[in-house]
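G., the chain you wanted modeled:
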Amino acid sequence: MELIKRNIHMDCVRCKAFTQMTLEDDVIISDSRPDAAKLIMDRGNVVIDEVKVTDDHAAVKGKLEFYVLYLAERGSGAEGRSDVACMEGTIPFEEMVFMEGVKSGDGVSVDWEIEDLSVGLINSRKLSVQSLIGLSLRCEEILDEETAVDLHSEEPVEFRKKTLDVATVAVKKKDIFRIKEEVEIPGSFPNIVSMVWSEITPGMVEFKVLEDKIALQGELHAFFLYRGEGEDEEICHYETTLPFAGSLECGGCREGMIPEIRLRAENKDVEVRPDFDGEERVITFEQCLDLDICIYEEDSIDILSDVYGVVKEVAVQEKSADFQKLQTKCSGKAKVSGHFKAQEENVMLHKILHTASDLRVGEKKVVEGGIEITGTVELQIFFECSNENDKYGVIRGSIPFQYLLEADGITENCIYPISACVDQVTVAIIDNQEVDVKCVLYFRSNVYKQWQEKIVEQIIVSEPDMEKMASLPGIAVYMVRDGESLWDIGKRYYVPVSVIRQTNALQNDEVKAGDKILIVKGI
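Predicted structure as tokens:
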């Protein structure tokens, strides 16, 4: 008697850990940069350089990259003009994280979030940088769950199967998608002398699995601040949205599979080059999207669920196995708004130049009807004002949100990775010092049901218990009890289900409590 088995590829998080760390440093502005009078905008990025794993610990080495846009002191730039400048710097870190269950040699992935970044001006040549960073560590592995799907036997034996709908892992890997674009500034804008500040951020990216590749499409939101050609080299800004589309080679993919892909935008390179007339008007950049790819395949698998012998004693040895399947796909949008006032006195708002937004998801939990998501949208509203001596500034604000992402059939046992982004931001000036902000937030999740299933691990065949066999009648009338099936009755009397069905002229295996079933052995 031989079990026919099949490997079912399931992914699991063997262990995980979370830690927060505070980084702080005083940073000197380089001699090549002008003195700072006022800070305007800042942003940060974390680079993980190395992860060393030992038993129950992971050492994470990396650095915080920060960028600061500031207003230069009068006299630092061209005489009589309010100038802006930027600087960047890094703060290195090494963090030892306790991670129970991880073993030396295991692969550990690290996700990060800058939970707070605060840059202060100590004096015109020195900045104070403080940041709170959250690190999420995961040790993931692919389990080949060896599952019995059939049985080969030369002796009479009865077995039955049941169908499992599961989501199995078809592809799991990391990759990089590079977006190369160029933007030519409109003819009404002056030529570019030098780039001061640039921001390029992706919106929600859509993924589709095709034959041996993954198709991507989305949008990039780009903002450029530069010095324009002319006697005063005035500060100019240009903002645009660029659609992109493309594909990645991904062997093993087939159309209709489920993409579960985490992305992070990294490694942006911005350059200025001349147009066909030789004027510096074209901005080129390459934006890299780091992708953590997991592709699931929905499959229906008939597994062996029980076995009994007819002429010999057959025992089934079972074990518990973890499975998951796609429960539902869900997406939705939420609108949030807020009013914010400039903190500086005597500000006369003239124009909104750019709004940088950062959506931070705080808590997500299963409630009746779906997933309740709470968090904040952090805003930096870069403006120009009417004061020539203090021409630029920023309004910082935070908009809290709570949103119910509807998800049919979700329970506490489900997993639900969430993708979220700020889809739209509009800022309107209300009066000289106050603005009204409206945001549209987009959420998306694939919800997976997880459960444990008893699967047949081994079949043990032994000679029949002759005393037990002798005690069973050769012919009997059995009254079906509540919850019993023909399988239960056949197993009790060592009679094939097909024989019971034939003896009783039954069209199918359905019986109900109180039915009388004739049992005849040896047919």
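The first helix runs from residue 466 to 471.

Shout if anything looks off.
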